[in-house]
Amino acid sequence: MVEFIPVMLFILGWHPDRPGELDLQRPEILFASVEECMAEGSKMAAAMTAAASDKSGAQYQARCMPVPSSQEFENAWQDAIKPAE
User: Fold this and answer.
1) One digit per residue, pLDDT tens: the chain, 85 residues?
2) 45 strand-pairing partners
3) Which of 6, 33, 45, 58 has CB atoms 3.0–4.6 Å from 62's, for a disulfide?
4) Counting beta carbons within 10 angstroms of the beta carbon of residue 53, is it exposed (0 to 12), middle (13 to 18) or buried (19 or more)?
5) Domain edges within the chain
6) What are the φ/ψ torsions at residue 55 (nearest 5 degrees)?
7) Do residues 14 and 58 touch, judged by C-beta distance below 8 A?
8) Do 67 and 8 touch, CB atoms closer than 8 A?
9) Where are the alpha helices (DSSP H) in the chain?
């Protein structure tokens, strides 16, 4: 069996004058590959940066990462339901 692991897009925003203030967004969209994700994410980040250029001055950047595997979800679930010791 081949497991298909989709890729999540994250948009990271920040303002150059306020380095400690970050904005992290995850648009509700998944991609079949990191390349597809980065292509679309780069467009979205560029549009967001352009829209903010005359308002807040924030800058945005795309980041892509695979959705955790089903085994990682299972392990997390098992850890969450373990009785307290």
Assistant:
1) 677 789 999 999 999 888 788 999 999 999 999 999 999 999 999 999 999 998 889 999 999 999 888 888 888 888 888 776 6
2) none
3) 45
4) exposed
5) 7-81
6) -115, -90
7) yes
8) yes
9) 34-52, 70-81
